[in-house]
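Morning - S-adenosylmethionine inputs below, output right after.
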Amino acid sequence: MDDVRKILRNLSDAASERGAPLDWFEDLYDFAGKDSTFIPWSKGEPHPFLVDWMDEYAGREGSALIVGCGLGEDAVYLAEKGWNVTAFDLSESAIRWVKEMHAHHSISWEVGDLLKPNPTWIEKFDLVLEVHILQAIPEVFRIPASQNLAPLVGQGGQLICIGRMENPLNEIEVDGPPWPLERSFIQSIGQTLNPTDMYVVQYEEEEHLRYRAVWQRS
Ligand SMILES: C[S@@+](CC[C@H](N)C(=O)[O-])C[C@H]1O[C@@H](n2cnc3c(N)ncnc32)[C@H](O)[C@@H]1O
């Protein structure tokens, strides 16, 4: 895993030096050559905080938008639970790869950019899910990207964001990506929606916190 992190860091530094700091995602998926051991965030299973949320709201289904879907574990999980899923990622290689792995009839895999979301997605989805995207992109992109999430949630729909959060008791400088997010930043993501859940936990082996934030459009 340390070797993979080194490759990731080299690709990320090189992309920043070229003046295209988000290009390293595509570079990494391309470099991986369809070997998922090179994709450090791909665990082959849905995020446990999403699974917990689904257990709590079992039976709910509708249309879901998965933002920055990567290798698609969360999208496949929701499709198997009966959701009608649109899953997009900035990386063309990731989308080509995930399409080959998971040709599920109720998932539409698309190349897309959270900085310029498809206008037809506005207020369209019952669930918008963001896992580990905002923490993986530099602040200059993170702030505008974060403001594009809430507008995609339809009437009565929910926005779920999952990721790392700064630990106020342990203010160390983090050399990301990923960068743990400030609580106030996380709260700003859904400021036009109603907050309904903020789950925070610290694992023993980690210095940062982990969060799941949920908002609803009423
Ligand atoms: C850390 S990975 C997380 C992937 C997936 N959500 C997961 O949890 O396994 C971040 C993902 O976001 C994608 N990404 C980065 N910037 C993006 C953007 N502006 N729009 C859409 N996807 C983006 C990357 O290509 C990458 O697949």
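Note: The chain has one domain: 43-216.

O.
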